[in-house]
Amino acid sequence: MIIYDQHVHTSFSFDSNEKMEDYMKLAGQDFVSTEHLEFNNPEVQNHDSIPDYTKYVAEIERLKKATGKRVHKGIEIGMSAGQADKIKDYLAHHTFDIKLLSFHQDGTKDFGSNMVSHLDPLQVTDQYYQLMWKGINEFHDADVLAHFDYGVRRLSLTSGQFSTTAGVLLTNIFKVAIQNNLAFELNTKSMYKYHNIGLYDYAIEIYKQLGGKRYTIGSDAHDATHYEDHFRDALDMLKAHDIHHINVYRQGAMTVVPIDDIPEDL
Ligand SMILES: [Zn+2]
Question: What is the domain extent for residue 127?
Answer without folding.
Answer: 20-258
